Predict the structure.
Amino acid sequence: MLAQRRSLLASASRSFAAFQHCSRTIHTSLNTSKLPQPTLEMAHSMPLTPQELDNHTLITMSALGNLNARKEIVKRHIMSVDRIEYEEAVDKFELIEATNLDFQLLYALPYKIGIAIALTAGFTSFPLVFHLPTAEFFNNAYVTADVPEPKDIETALEVAGWTWNWMEPLLGQSTFFLLCLQFSRIQIEMLGFRPYTEYIKSRRGIIRLNGTKYMFLRFSNAFISVSFNQQQPSAWRNHSLSTTLGY
């Protein structure tokens, strides 16, 4: 058994030494040989914006989740359907994009309320636990617990030991409630239902008509959905698509 182990170790050592020799040989050959370099024509022909890419490249980037590529596909779809030039297609695309961003402030309101509540509760918890005047005010207004002797609440930690009598159930129950909400969200996603965020993203892919002002029914709703339903629910500023590929 010991002889077999020594034989395996020796074989592994020889293989590793051979691998190192091959690596050094390849590294030396790469350093000594002149690698091909890009020409000036290649540099000039490199695409810098989405509209310079061919259709196959755009479809590949779109399948990989690139939002700018998806929007460029919609623009070319508009050109094909309406038989117009690129500049006119960009104008129509921006109109469609603005239409799909309707009610943005309303959709984002629950997020703003949640942020405000979370920040307010988080920062307020510190003085409620450690600050004696704030704790005394809260106790007199909502708790009416017995106040300890002055020598027992001289430091912030001693104040926390007193306030924790009523802050512990409040903070503990709030934490447990948030944990239950998170658990329920996971179960909802497991069942295939879309939470609020995904609902908003999907709504962005639906063309909403306002009388006869936005007549977009001639365009494929599949292209519109793919282009807009991956955006964040609250994109406050629409960045120009002609300045970056978004890699």
The chain has ten helices and no strands. The two ends are 56 Å apart (CA to CA). The longest helix spans residues 156-190. The mean pLDDT is 76.
